[in-house]
Amino acid sequence: MIEIREEQPEDREAIREVNIRAFAQSHEADIVDDLRRNCNDLLSLVATMQDQVIGHILFSPVSIESEARTIQGMALAPMAVLPEFQQRGVGSELVRTGIAELKRRLCPFVIVLGHAGYYPRFGFEPAGVYGIRSEWEVPDDAFMLLVLNESEMRGISGVARYRPEFA
């Protein structure tokens, strides 16, 4: 049975390994390590099975700079599952649990740069529908937004800016 819980200090090496194996490189694992060192406002969840970390998801602060004001939300990145546990719903459980926790924390929105065929099942829509664009050149259908608080997001449009660790 899969358990989803917040990251603990003893999970760090396993999280690094999950990201390296899932992405077949260390870039995402390095970003996770850098964010952990430089940012206190993270939501980092692991999926475990029989006490083994088999998946990881990280949410970090992102801002949308509009003409009226700047609003803070969270960016979903990265999300990784060990290759031998992929296609079993582990990633979906991580996403659902993370979104539920962010709603509980009154986060107004979540942004993701990801597969256009995967994230809409959780309610993500192209961010452009809301007049929100990425600070980077990315495909419109891959840059998505999930509004968690409609009233807080009313009238917000502009550029979404990630933490510098993603640059």
Tell me the structural class: alpha+beta
Low-confidence stretches: none
Which fold name corresponds to the CATH topology? Aminopeptidase
Taken in chain order, the helices and strands follow as: EHHEEEHEEEEHE
Domain count, please report it.
1
Distance between the termini: 37 Å
Please report the number of helical segments: 4
Mean pLDDT: 96
DSSP, total strands: 9
Q: How much helical structure, as a percent, in the residues?
A: 25-40%
- Global outline: globular
Strand content bin: 25-35%
CATH architecture: 3-Layer(aba) Sandwich
| Rounded radius of gyration (Å) | 15 Å
CATH class: Alpha Beta
Assembly annotation: single chain
Structural account:
- The chain is α+β, with helices and mostly antiparallel strands and 167 residues long.
- Helices cover 26% and strands 34% of the residues.
- It has one domain (2-166): Gcn5-related N-acetyltransferase (GNAT) (Aminopeptidase), CATH 3.40.630.30.
- It is built from four helices and nine strands.
- Strands 1, 2, 3, 4, 5, 6, 7, 8 and 9 form a nine-stranded mixed beta sheet that branches.
- Strand 3 and strand 4 (70-81) form a beta hairpin.
- The mean pLDDT is 96.
